[in-house]
Amino acid sequence: MNPGRPSKGSKELIGRWRIEEMDLWDRDALDLVAPAFIEFRFDDTGQFGFIAVRGWMDCREAEIDDRPGLEFSWEGNDECDPASGRGWAALQSDGSEAGHIYFHMGDDSAFRAKRE
What we know:
This protein has a single domain (8-115), classed as Beta Barrel (Lipocalin). 7% of the residues lie in helices and 59% in strands. The chain has helices at residues 8-11, 27-30; strands at residues 15-22, 37-40, 45-50, 53-64, 67-78, 81-91, 97-103, 108-115. The chain has an eight-stranded antiparallel β-barrel. The longest helix is centred in the first third of the chain and has 4 residues, at 8-11.
């Protein structure tokens, strides 16, 4: 495994995913400003958005529960206030993506997403 270079499995996560659910917020809240999403790119970056949160990610390949995945740190904003944190995402056997987003010194929530 080469850090910073997606493996065959983690390449399957590249692309834009629709966040379908999160532990802490209902669907109406997730789509408050725009449809909730998370996106991973080949250049080890990405972005996500839900409610009034927007984040830009620095991603690294990771194996999570024996599944291909990515770990990331992120910076962005939450209702126009600076925000940052970390997270991870892993490909599931049904083709969906499961993960967790953590806010530095704040909330954290699991999420589930489907490819757009």
